[in-house]
Write a structure and sequence with these properties.
The structure holds 2 protein chains of 2 kinds.
Chain A (H helix, E strand, L loop, with lengths): L3 H8 L3 H23 L2 H18 L9 H20 L28 H6 L4 H6 L3 H11 L4 H8 L3 H22 L1
Chain B lengths: L3 H15 L5 H13 L1 H22 L9 E3 L9 E3 L15 H20 L7 H13 L8 E11 L11 E11 L3 E8 L4 E7 L3 E5 L5 E5 L5 H6 L6 H6 L1 H4 L3 E8 L2 E9 L16 E6 L5 E7 L7 E12 L17 E4 L8 H14 L5 E3 L7 E2 L3 E3 L3 E7 L10 H4 L1 E7 L2 H8 L3 E5 L2 E6 L2 E2 L5 E2 L1 E7 L2 E7 L4 H9 L1 E3 L4
Helix pairs in contact in B: 1-2, 1-3, 2-3, 3-4
The chains are: A mainly alpha, B alpha+beta.
């Protein structure tokens, strides 16, 4: 964890402190962004953009900065604008079109299989994520990364209640799609 | 009993429960409902399976390598470059119930994801780049380079008085044209440009020394031409690369453009294999840039041991053309009319008597007193002595196998140069050295460092005796051993 002293030093312009921050957060940010955009190179670029924005902007914040929330917010904003620009080029459709005549059978996962299998047997995660909007996707990824709802609220600007509700909705959307497909 | 209305009411709570985001009261409520409601238990298992699958998906993401260098254009005088580090972060998380179901889900899911990842190109690792760079450094042909035209600039802070005033900055420029297997032309300007032109025509190597425009030296191309290509700031990069894995912590920190080429940036960090005595000036952090296509090293930076002192050396290609058409005339050298040719090809190993004669003959040629060790250092044999424009009379004592070669004598043996001792010359050669007395005369001593990874500084002893500056240097012998040899110096009698 990065100490608040380190944050304060970075805010004051200490490059070494910022290096510490980068060392700690870069893998988290990358993973989060990778989950959001589903593309290694784009995630790397966005991680770099995020850290660069942070580097340029941290002096305009204060010593009491909530660093985690701030960094992930920057990351998400970068991802949202980039995805908007790219129109989600790298994402695959979740469901094969019913009318293309090439739909495959479910790969051997029966209706009576256990709940986990039912939930995910036909959904590759990456494809599943495409079915959510960026917000739903980022909420699920942040929860999976172990952030608390309070932390996620700080990152996204949502109330804790709204975080809980939207995470639930995102999960339910995937579950419904799974059932629809199954 | 299943109560659909209750299930709907509790669904969001179950989702929060799967994240550990419920109060104690809510937990009791959820768990008591789950015991009686298979549908909701299944819903929970789904949420947990999804969370586990997402974590696995993220954990399996390719390593964030090339995002790691930020070339920041920063206002307010902040640094313009920032390097980041990647590492994998493991995280424990509370999983309230149904871990078996989550596990099963992950196992099933892994099949689908495996196919997806198998189709992705594997991320490039620093060691892979270094492996290839080492192979190309040893043999450019291995990287598909048959010829190269290279222009590069060098910059260094002087840390050794022999190369200038300590602390001052020096610059050099080189234009190198090389064609496999043994044709090359190297034009040098600035610091470290004792030889301003060197041409290998495949038979002889011709050198035109700086300050000696009327002298052309030549010798057989026994030098490994490929090493000349890789000799960034005079060091043997081949050895550095070969030891990079063992002695450094190489990290691929990104990609940058160098001379129009895309290059991997490899931050080697500081050496982990310093000499046992430690403290060598060359043990600081190293960064190299490796051409992404040919794996040729196109840029190198060397930092001071004390990072606050920043860079101490930098070399960078400014123009690179691989496998282009090269004018064959560049590889020939016509000796200008009236210019003397000095043949520096190493002669056959002298017998004891021949050696004494050669020394006596040289002593008559120079205006200063010559000295020679009273005995040939143990395990070594003398090469024929020679007079060079830049280093005066050179004596070389080397292992027997190297006597008739043109290798650098100080690498495995002892190199002794003798020149007329002017104040400036002595000041330059002894800057930073420790004052000692050598046989009653004023002397200086430098303790070299030889790191197991091949990087090194040489040990040296310099003594001024009867107006002659005698300097001994070796990477293989310690300063104390050199001191013993220096103590044994005796004058060479003129005929």
């Amino acid at each position: 964890m990065v100490s608040q002293t380190t944050v304060a030093l970075a805010v004051a312009g200490d490059d070494e402190a910022f290096q510490t921050i980068v060392a700690h957060y870069e893998p988290h940010l990358y993973r989060f962004l990778y989950g959001l955009v589903g593309n290694h190179e784009l995630a790397q670029d966005l991680t770099q953009d995020t850290l660069l924005s942070a580097y340029q902007g941290i002096s305009r914040t204060g010593a009491d900065l909530n660093l985690t929330a701030w960094l992930f917010r920057i990351a998400k904003n970068h991802a949202v604008s980039e995805l908007r620009r790219r129109r989600l080029v790298s994402w695959l459709p979740l469901l094969r079109r019913k009318d293309d005549g090439e739909e495959e059978e479910a790969p051997g996962i029966g209706q009576t299989a256990d709940a986990g299998e039912e939930a995910l047997g036909r959904l590759a995660v990456r494809e599943a994520l495409t079915q959510l909007d960026v917000e739903g996707r980022s909420l699920l990824l942040l929860a999976a990364e172990g952030f608390s709802y309070v932390e996620i609220g700080e990152m996204t600007g949502l109330s804790t209640g709204a975080v809980r509700q939207r995470i639930f909705r995102a999960r339910e959307r995937l579950r419904a799609l799974q059932r629809q497909e199954g | 009993m299943m109560d659909v209305r209750k299930c709907e009411q509790l669904a969001e709570l179950i989702s929060a429960y799967s994240d550990g985001e419920v109060t104690a009261e809510e937990r009791v409520l959820v768990e008591s409902h789950l015991r009686d409601c298979p549908d909701c238990a299944q819903r929970l298992a789904y949420y947990q399976g999804l969370g586990g699958a997402l974590r696995d998906y993220l954990a399996a993401a390719p390593a964030p390598s090339s995002s790691a260098v930020i070339g920041a254009t920063q206002k307010g005088g902040r640094k313009t470059e920032m390097t980041t580090r990647s590492n994998t972060v493991e995280r424990a998380r509370f999983r309230p119930l149904g871990a078996w179901a989550a596990l099963a889900a992950v196992v099933v899911l892994a099949l689908g994801i495996g196919v997806f990842f198998a189709s992705r190109p594997a991320p490039v690792q620093a060691h892979e780049v270094l492996d290839k760079a080492a192979r190309v450094a040893a043999d450019p042909l291995a990287g598909g380079i048959n010829s190269i035209e290279l222009e590069r600039t060098g910059w260094a802070k002087v840390v050794d008085g022999r190369f200038g005033v300590v602390g001052s900055e020096v610059h050099n420029q080189q234009r190198i044209v090389w064609q496999a297997p043994n044709l090359w032309r190297i034009e040098s300007e600035g610091a470290f440009a004792d030889v301003r032109l060197e041409v290998s025509d495949g038979q002889n190597v011709w050198q035109v020394a700086d300050g000696q425009p009327t002298t052309v030296q030549k010798w057989e191309p026994q030098l490994d031409a490929r090493k000349r290509l890789m000799a960034f700031t005079g060091e043997n990069l081949t050895e550095l690369l070969a030891n990079a894995e063992a002695c450094y912590s190489p990290r691929l920190t990104g990609e940058e453009q160098v001379a129009g080429r895309t290059a991997y940036v490899i931050d080697l960090g500081a050496t982990k294999c310093p000499a046992a005595s430690g403290g060598g000036v060359m043990n600081g952090r190293r960064v190299i840039w490796v051409d992404k296509e040919t794996f040729f090293v196109v840029k190198s930076e060397h930092y001071a041991v004390d990072e606050n002192q920043g860079l101490i050396a930098k070399e960078e290609a400014t123009r690179i053309v691989y496998n282009g058409d090269i004018d064959p005339d560049l590889f020939s050298y016509d000796v200008p009319a009236g210019v003397a040719i000095e043949d520096l090809r190493p002669g056959p190993a002298p017998t004891g008597e021949q050696y004494r004669e050669q020394l006596t003959s040289l002593a008559a040629k120079v205006e200063y007193q010559l000295f020679v060790p009273s005995e040939v250092p143990a395990g070594l044999e003398p090469r024929q002595p020679r007079l060079s424009p830049s280093a005066g009379v050179e004596l070389a004592y080397v292992p027997p196998a190297e006597v008739e070669q043109d290798s650098a004598a100080q690498e495995h043996g002892i190199w002794i140069s003798q020149q007329h001792a002017t104040e400036d010359l002595v000041a330059g050669w002894t800057a930073g050295m420790e004052a000692v007395t050598v046989g009653g005369d004023e002397g200086w001593l430098r303790r070299g460092e030889r790191n197991p990874d091949g990087t090194a500084t040489d040990s040296g002893v310099t003594v001024v005796r009867e107006g002659t500056m005698v300097s001994l240097a070796s990477f293989a012998f310690s300063a104390e051993e050199l001191l013993d040899v220096a103590e044994s110096l005796v004058p060479v009698a003129e005929p």
